[in-house]
Amino acid sequence: MTRTALIISADRDVAAADVLDVALNGRPIRLAPQTRRMLTERRGQIERYVREHPEERAYGFNTGFGHNVHLSVNELPDKELQAALKELQRSLIHSHASGVGPDADIHVIRATMVLRANSLARGHSAVRPVVVETLLALVNAGITPAVPRYGTVSASGDLAPLSHIALALLGDGLVYRGGKRMPARKALSAAGIEPVVLEMKEGLALNNGAQYSNALGILAAAKYEILLKTAAITTSLTTQVMLGADTPFRADLHALRAHAGAQRVASWIAALMKDSPLREAHRGFDVDGEVQDPYNIRCAAQVLGTCAELLARADKTFAIEANSVTDNPILLASARDNSAYVDIVSGGHFHAMPLAVDLYGLIQAAAMTAALVNVRCARYIDGKRNKGLGDDLKWPGDLDLKFRDDPQASDKRALQIAQAVSSAMMIPEYASAGLTNAIWGLAMPSHLFSISTDAGQEDHVSMASNVGLRLHDALDRLAEALAIELAFAYQAAAIRKAMRRLPSRAPDNSKGWRALSERECRLSPPGEALLVAIGRHFKVVKRDRSLAPELAAMAEAVRAGDFVRAAEAAGIAFGPAHC
Fold this sequence. Notes:
Layout: E1 6-8, H1 16-25, E2 29-31, H2 33-52, H3 78-96, E3 100-103, H4 106-120, H5 129-140, E4 144-145, E5 148-150, H6 159-169, E6 174-177, E7 180-183, H7 184-191, H8 202-207, H9 211-241, H10 251-254, H11 260-273, H12 277-281, H13 295-298, H14 300-322, E8 330-332, E9 343-345, H15 353-380, H16 398-405, H17 412-420, H18 426-441, H19 464-499, E10 501-505, E11 511-515, H20 525-535, H21 548-560, H22 562-569
Parallel strand pairs: 1-2
Antiparallel strand pairs: 3-5, 4-6, 6-7, 8-9, 10-11
Helix pairs in contact: 1-4, 3-6, 4-5, 4-9, 9-11, 9-14, 9-15, 9-19, 11-14, 14-15, 15-18, 15-19, 18-19, 19-21, 20-22
């Protein structure tokens, strides 16, 4: 089946979903014919202008770069000048392709290529159509430049990553195709793509921009949206099995403090808990005498709602950036003739501070989400606070259940031994703490710590890509933490169903147990569907075993959005996380 191509056009914005579709799913991408004509026309205008004004030093056209701006090649004879102008651009790309570290994720680089092509197609960068079309041809052919993760300060653009991408357009450097790393020239030749010979300003147009940072942001935002919805799921499951209340998620309550994020998240959790027999079984306060739940439940909508608003803000920033012109200099319409784009204007649109702030906002969101998850995991294993689930969620065997019926049972010693030899779910709580701490450790605000570069010419930089790279690491750790909470909820739900009783306070305030029917042990309909989904990866812990393989499989399912889809199949209409 032939897929409809995404059309890159100067007069049409691309959405983040479009970028993701190309980067992740291989959707084809094309340059609009009218945009091709416009690029040709504007390129002709600026070429004539530079040729007719040899006395002008036009940055990026006939001068050196950065602190070498004072060096010009204009004094050369015409034949030598044309060769020098091309060499100027080739040298720029080769010299700036000096990134370090392991290669970046190919999906991030594919998204970067789409974003760079869209920016160049706006018609203010002075490139020929062949530059944009070759960039798109590589994307369509599945040729992804090998780009080292590190080496950019994200002001004057993501110079090193974008130069590695541009290197592939020249037929130089290394690329990935079909899962193999190979020389770019070999991959281009196999795909029938002719390498580009850059002309004046085109190298600078290719490597001046913050698209690498923005690609990191767009992919991270999509990941975090899945994790935020999964956090609403874990909140609903934990609230039910911990015998918490659903009242903190009422719509009329949140109408009195109308933060859009909290309202959105509260509506999710309320829907996920609706018609829970287990909740109805303890709607009175006779279970534990507590009128209020701890903050990790009662304030979950407020905390996660704040995260939702950080996500909404980031999405808006990334969308603006995706459809912006970000290189330098930029061509603007002449004051004398607004149909001629020959005013060469130097500016700072390549500075990625707007992205850095919102990338960091998503690290904050990940850290806040992880903190909620961790304190709930800590409560799960605490027999004094988990409302009858026992230490470490150890499985209540026949002996345990018998002792609960008759505390004077003669085999109490055997029960003590059985409990003593089991650690059950103890260590996943440690892992949750370690993951949460790791996320907090990734939360250094790099964008507040500028380091001057380029001999002081570029004396304030954003460090956005460093924030973005750490954000992706933080989201991977958060997926693992959420997987652990899902496992806890699954084990706790199984224990409730095995016990079929709740700790209860008698009128004289003495402690005992209240029997439940089989139905009263069940979670809400979406909750039960989610337990089935969890059970595909994780089994009830009745005897100690290594849980690492199951938790790893759970984390992959979290990242893939499996539990969000399971909730949606059960009737939960999440919609976008945007507020």
